[in-house]
Amino acid sequence: MSNHAHASHSGPIKTPSQLLWTSFFSFVVPVFIIIGLVYFVTSGNKPGAGADTSELATAIRIQRVGKVELQAGERKLREGDAAYAAQCAACHASGLVGAPKFGDTAAWAPRIGNGFDALLNSVMKGKGAMGPQAGGNLSDLEIARAMVHMVNAGGGKLQAPAAPAADAGK
Hints:
- There is one protein chain.
- Helix content is 51%, strand content 0%.
- It has helices spanning 2-8, 16-42, 55-61, 80-92, 105-112, 116-125, 140-153.
- The protein is mainly alpha-helical and 170 residues long.
- It is rod-shaped, with a radius of gyration of 38 Å.
- Helix 4 (80-92) packs across helix 7 and helix 6 packs across helix 7 (140-153).
- It folds into two domains: 2-39, no CATH class; 80-164, Cytochrome Bc1 Complex, Chain D, domain 2, CATH 1.10.760.10.
- The protein contains seven helices and no strands.
Protein backbone atom coordinates (compact mmCIF):
# COMPACT_ATOMS: atom_id res chain seq x y z
CA MET A 1 0.00 0.00 0.00
CA SER A 2 2.81 2.37 0.77
CA ASN A 3 4.38 1.58 -2.62
CA HIS A 4 1.19 2.70 -4.32
CA ALA A 5 1.09 5.97 -2.38
CA HIS A 6 4.69 6.70 -3.28
CA ALA A 7 4.10 6.02 -7.01
CA SER A 8 1.16 8.45 -7.25
CA HIS A 9 3.26 11.36 -5.92
CA SER A 10 6.30 10.91 -8.16
CA GLY A 11 6.95 13.06 -11.25
CA PRO A 12 8.02 12.19 -14.79
CA ILE A 13 11.76 12.33 -13.89
CA LYS A 14 12.80 8.99 -12.46
CA THR A 15 16.58 8.93 -12.88
CA PRO A 16 19.47 11.42 -12.50
CA SER A 17 20.13 11.12 -16.23
CA GLN A 18 16.60 12.31 -16.97
CA LEU A 19 17.12 15.24 -14.57
CA LEU A 20 20.34 16.20 -16.37
CA TRP A 21 18.72 16.14 -19.81
CA THR A 22 15.64 18.03 -18.61
CA SER A 23 17.84 20.74 -17.09
CA PHE A 24 19.88 20.94 -20.28
CA PHE A 25 16.86 21.31 -22.55
CA SER A 26 15.05 23.70 -20.18
CA PHE A 27 17.86 26.19 -19.63
CA VAL A 28 20.86 25.72 -21.90
CA VAL A 29 19.06 25.21 -25.23
CA PRO A 30 16.84 28.35 -24.86
CA VAL A 31 19.94 30.42 -24.07
CA PHE A 32 21.62 29.22 -27.27
CA ILE A 33 18.43 29.85 -29.26
CA ILE A 34 18.29 33.44 -27.96
CA ILE A 35 21.97 33.96 -28.77
CA GLY A 36 21.38 32.62 -32.26
CA LEU A 37 18.39 34.92 -32.83
CA VAL A 38 20.33 37.96 -31.61
CA TYR A 39 23.19 37.09 -33.94
CA PHE A 40 20.75 36.62 -36.85
CA VAL A 41 19.03 39.97 -36.27
CA THR A 42 22.22 41.98 -35.80
CA SER A 43 24.36 40.41 -38.51
CA GLY A 44 22.31 41.52 -41.52
CA ASN A 45 23.62 44.18 -43.89
CA LYS A 46 21.23 46.97 -42.94
CA PRO A 47 22.07 50.54 -43.94
CA GLY A 48 21.88 53.05 -41.12
CA ALA A 49 20.01 56.34 -41.25
CA GLY A 50 21.68 58.64 -43.76
CA ALA A 51 23.69 55.84 -45.34
CA ASP A 52 22.16 56.47 -48.77
CA THR A 53 24.48 59.09 -50.21
CA SER A 54 22.87 59.49 -53.62
CA GLU A 55 22.14 63.04 -54.74
CA LEU A 56 18.38 62.44 -54.61
CA ALA A 57 18.48 61.08 -51.06
CA THR A 58 20.64 64.01 -49.95
CA ALA A 59 18.32 66.50 -51.62
CA ILE A 60 15.28 64.95 -49.91
CA ARG A 61 16.97 65.09 -46.51
CA ILE A 62 18.02 68.72 -46.80
CA GLN A 63 14.95 70.17 -48.50
CA ARG A 64 13.39 73.24 -47.00
CA VAL A 65 10.33 72.70 -44.88
CA GLY A 66 9.48 76.35 -44.45
CA LYS A 67 10.32 79.69 -45.88
CA VAL A 68 10.80 83.04 -44.25
CA GLU A 69 11.12 85.92 -46.61
CA LEU A 70 11.84 89.46 -45.60
CA GLN A 71 11.04 92.02 -48.21
CA ALA A 72 11.80 95.66 -48.19
CA GLY A 73 8.77 97.90 -48.42
CA GLU A 74 10.29 99.46 -51.53
CA ARG A 75 9.39 96.60 -53.90
CA LYS A 76 7.75 97.84 -57.06
CA LEU A 77 4.33 96.30 -57.70
CA ARG A 78 4.09 94.21 -60.85
CA GLU A 79 1.77 95.07 -63.65
CA GLY A 80 -0.76 92.52 -64.91
CA ASP A 81 1.39 90.97 -67.64
CA ALA A 82 4.39 90.49 -65.33
CA ALA A 83 2.21 89.09 -62.53
CA TYR A 84 0.53 86.73 -65.04
CA ALA A 85 3.93 85.50 -66.24
CA ALA A 86 5.15 85.01 -62.66
CA GLN A 87 2.23 83.04 -61.27
CA CYS A 88 -0.61 82.33 -63.69
CA ALA A 89 1.05 81.30 -66.94
CA ALA A 90 2.09 77.89 -65.64
CA CYS A 91 -1.51 76.67 -65.89
CA HIS A 92 -3.37 79.24 -68.02
CA ALA A 93 -0.90 79.27 -70.95
CA SER A 94 -1.53 75.59 -71.67
CA GLY A 95 -4.98 75.08 -70.12
CA LEU A 96 -3.58 72.68 -67.54
CA VAL A 97 -6.22 70.81 -65.45
CA GLY A 98 -9.11 72.64 -67.11
CA ALA A 99 -7.79 76.18 -66.58
CA PRO A 100 -9.19 78.58 -69.20
CA LYS A 101 -6.41 79.30 -71.68
CA PHE A 102 -5.00 82.76 -72.03
CA GLY A 103 -6.78 84.52 -74.91
CA ASP A 104 -9.52 81.86 -75.33
CA THR A 105 -12.61 84.06 -75.65
CA ALA A 106 -15.06 81.12 -75.59
CA ALA A 107 -13.66 79.85 -72.27
CA TRP A 108 -13.52 83.30 -70.67
CA ALA A 109 -16.96 84.58 -71.81
CA PRO A 110 -19.06 82.90 -69.06
CA ARG A 111 -16.51 83.91 -66.43
CA ILE A 112 -16.45 87.54 -67.59
CA GLY A 113 -20.24 87.65 -67.19
CA ASN A 114 -19.83 87.06 -63.42
CA GLY A 115 -18.08 90.40 -62.98
CA PHE A 116 -14.85 91.59 -61.41
CA ASP A 117 -15.73 90.85 -57.77
CA ALA A 118 -16.89 87.28 -58.38
CA LEU A 119 -13.82 86.53 -60.51
CA LEU A 120 -11.47 88.02 -57.93
CA ASN A 121 -13.16 86.01 -55.16
CA SER A 122 -12.67 82.79 -57.15
CA VAL A 123 -9.02 83.63 -57.76
CA MET A 124 -8.25 84.53 -54.14
CA LYS A 125 -10.08 81.57 -52.58
CA GLY A 126 -9.46 79.04 -55.34
CA LYS A 127 -11.90 77.25 -57.58
CA GLY A 128 -11.88 73.71 -58.94
CA ALA A 129 -8.30 72.48 -59.36
CA MET A 130 -6.89 75.99 -58.86
CA GLY A 131 -5.68 76.59 -55.35
CA PRO A 132 -6.11 79.91 -53.57
CA GLN A 133 -3.79 82.57 -54.95
CA ALA A 134 -3.98 84.94 -51.99
CA GLY A 135 -1.03 84.93 -49.61
CA GLY A 136 1.57 83.78 -52.12
CA ASN A 137 4.58 85.56 -53.55
CA LEU A 138 2.42 88.23 -55.15
CA SER A 139 0.30 90.77 -53.34
CA ASP A 140 -3.47 90.74 -53.69
CA LEU A 141 -3.25 93.82 -55.93
CA GLU A 142 -0.78 92.05 -58.24
CA ILE A 143 -3.04 88.98 -58.39
CA ALA A 144 -5.99 91.21 -59.29
CA ARG A 145 -3.93 92.88 -62.03
CA ALA A 146 -2.95 89.46 -63.43
CA MET A 147 -6.60 88.40 -63.43
CA VAL A 148 -7.63 91.57 -65.30
CA HIS A 149 -4.82 90.95 -67.81
CA MET A 150 -6.13 87.42 -68.50
CA VAL A 151 -9.77 88.49 -68.64
CA ASN A 152 -9.03 91.33 -71.04
CA ALA A 153 -7.01 88.98 -73.27
CA GLY A 154 -10.08 86.73 -73.33
CA GLY A 155 -12.39 89.50 -74.52
CA GLY A 156 -13.17 91.35 -71.28
CA LYS A 157 -13.07 95.08 -70.76
CA LEU A 158 -12.08 95.33 -67.09
CA GLN A 159 -10.08 98.21 -65.65
CA ALA A 160 -6.83 97.23 -63.93
CA PRO A 161 -6.90 98.14 -60.25
CA ALA A 162 -4.65 101.02 -59.31
CA ALA A 163 -2.24 101.01 -56.41
CA PRO A 164 -3.44 102.64 -53.18
CA ALA A 165 -2.47 106.29 -52.76
CA ALA A 166 0.45 105.46 -50.40
CA ASP A 167 1.90 103.01 -52.96
CA ALA A 168 1.23 105.15 -56.06
CA GLY A 169 4.86 106.24 -56.37
CA LYS A 170 6.31 102.73 -56.30
